[in-house]
């Protein structure tokens, strides 16, 4: 489908509340591509309006328009940009060989079908029902499943697809950081994942993700009444004034989503697939945060990270 855009350079419609929009912005920075950014306010419901629906009938962000090409999915956008442009800051972030690309596709589909679904279902419940009026334990179990799978993927690897950073890392870290807000990654249970996460946060492009995480936290605090275990660290991020009107009818904004009756999740299977993480279910958010902070001082030692210069990717 061709979008309604007369720009001579690619145009990305985005809101940094969207993890995949943040992933695309990070990749654009890495590739050093000249892209026009057009902000779409998800909280105000701008993506549901007639104007944006003509550009993207699925009414999602991000959307990329590049001449006759219109792409509606963040993963597809990243693949397209990598195939069209060459990274100017190191090795290619998308392999050219067949088997290498299959590995990336595996990880991108995991993010889309498992990690992102876990994130979107949880945020929808928080915004619609307010904390704790939804199946908290069910969602905690799903997050733990995701953390455990990623921890296994990272066994003996510096990054998700091997020892070089790829778009699989950009795709996963934005969604993962949003979940980490709600259930902080505990190094005791997921050491590989925790070290990888800290490694990604040291990269210069990560700030594009961090800004969106601050905004998401504000939305969850004000709209979803979510009790975060610790205040924002003012030394690393500056909490901005809440940028959206608080009198918006959020239930109306999300009325296009399938209705979920409270208690429906309790009827679903709550089995956690990874036995070594059973104890994590019983940990409160504050306990997990405390343990993470206790171990944070030793996270980035060379022995744990395995990199002498983390920015030389």
Summed up, what is this model?
The chain is mainly α and 313 residues long. It is built from twelve helices and four strands.
Which parts are unreliable, with pLDDT below 50 for 5 consecutive residues or more? Answer: 233-313
Strand tally is 4
Given this structure, which CATH class of the domain at 98-223 is correct? Mainly Alpha
Strand order of the largest sheet: 2-1-3-4
Order of helices and strands: EHEHEEHHHHHHHHHH
| Share of β-strand residues | under 5%
The residue fraction in helices comes out at 40-55%
Radius of gyration, Cα only, in angstroms?
19 Å
Description of the structure:
This protein is mostly helical. Among the domains are: 76 residues, Glutaredoxin, CATH 3.40.30.10; 126 residues, Glutathione S-transferase Yfyf (Class Pi), Chain A, domain 2, CATH 1.20.1050. The chain contains 12 helices and 4 strands, in the order βαβαββαααααααααα. Strands 2-1-3-4 form a 4-stranded mixed sheet, covered by helices on one side. The radius of gyration is 19 Å and the shape is globular. The C terminus is likely disordered.
